[in-house]
Design a protein that fits this description.
mainly alpha; 15 helices; globular
Length: 392
Amino acid sequence: MDYTYLLLLALILLSTKVLGLASEKIHMPQVVGALLAGIILGPSCFGVLHETDFMVKTAEIGVIMLMFTAGIDTDMAELKRTGPKAFVIAVLGVFVPLLLCGGLYFVFFCDGVFTMQNVLQSAFVGSVFSATSVSITVETMNEMGYLKTSTGTVLLSAALIDDILGIVVLSVLTGLSSGGANPLMVLVRIGLFFLFTLIVGFVMYRVFGFIAEDHWHSRRVAIWALAFCLLMAYCAEAVFGVADITGAYFAGLILCNVTKCRKFVAKKFTVAAYMLFTPVFFASVGMKTDLTSMNSEILFFAILLVIAAVLSKIIGCGLGGLVCHMSRHQSLVVGIGMVARSEVALMVAQKGIAAGMIDPVILPAIILSVIVSALLTPVLLKLAISKGPALA
């Protein structure tokens, strides 16, 4: 038996943590450092890391646990309070990047030829940039004292809805990307999945609610939650042809309402995920980023993709704010606050590569866009807030 995987795992954990902390020191997300670790150890530099079955499966568990955590951290009370306004902003925040970033890929790599394959590939690239990461925005607005304003509340709620819509879009695209899939049957399967989720959600909410009455702090609750998460991920992929991360996300959403065990389970998941699985996931994404394959065309595409990724959220979410009768300044702040992308974008890119819908050659362009959007968001946000009237 070859034990090299133990050495590689140790290298991944050490390098992602060291570079992650270094990224944090210069006010960048730790994700950036973890990606760089994968790039440095991968084919682009030292060539130490290579894709193995162990790496693939460990990374997949990392994605599933990340999405479950995102679901369980969802504040449903916040969503109900801001409701329609956040929904309109989120819809436009998903649609415009889908159109603009996907359209850019279509122009560059599909020669303007409308085939089902070309449209699906373009839509997959667009869907990568539909999701939002507001952790940087939260930190910036909290620092400036505007997080608890009505603008801050709408922004946070829109980001949550944005992620849910992005997951739904991914589910549809994953179903359609299956060879010879009938679009009508894909929509039927997705509809059945959501019906299944509603039924399971009702039952499991009651079950976990009953357990949480007296045993919410028991380690068994976290184990049962993990089993539920994995079962939902399996059913989504194997039974309904929907992405496994969709099942994991909705498993988290179901349990986010069980208030007594919610924080306890989220804490246990966060420790388990960040101790092992998510570092492997981020390193594996970095490892797939082969910078040696970059040429002038890919570099030019990367620059345009960065611009499209930033502008699409500002335009889409900003327009949504104006439609909902927010002021121009508030709409601009909301649009800029939704620019940052992070984990979810990388997960969707990973799914697109696995489905054969995203060419790994353009992965460096996607990662560059994720990193630049994360860097630009706090700078633009502080500038926009300081130059305008006080936020309500």
